[in-house]
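Many introductory courses stop at the sequence. We go one step further.
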Amino acid sequence: MLRQDPKLLDRVPRPVLPAAPAPAPALVPGDELLVGRRSEQARLQAVAEQVRTGRAAVVVIEGEAGIGKTRLAEAAAGAARAAGWSVAWSRCADDTGAPALWPWTQVLEQLDQEELTPSPRPPTTTPTPRASGCSRTCEAG
């Protein structure tokens, strides 16, 4: 049986959802400087503009440990919150004991959405055995 880390049950506080769409956040750092992240910030700004016009988007930030993923995400989330946007935050578990769809479950919970329930799998069909038109006889000799 798989063990789950009790920390996986910790939740991030739920955001307060705005009543009307707010303008796209300006993803430019304030007093703090994000070194070498201009292209990433430009991509995030483009996604924010896309969302502002009504096109949904999901941003996934990935990369090696220690390269600044969390800092970049914090800057983007802070700018979005400052502009009045709802921000949901989740992390993937580092072990194999996490429940299925764990990051999405966390996001939906923060946004007061229904819990994910996996769709039932379609029944698998077993191929019907077919008789072959030929047979093979082997003789031991």
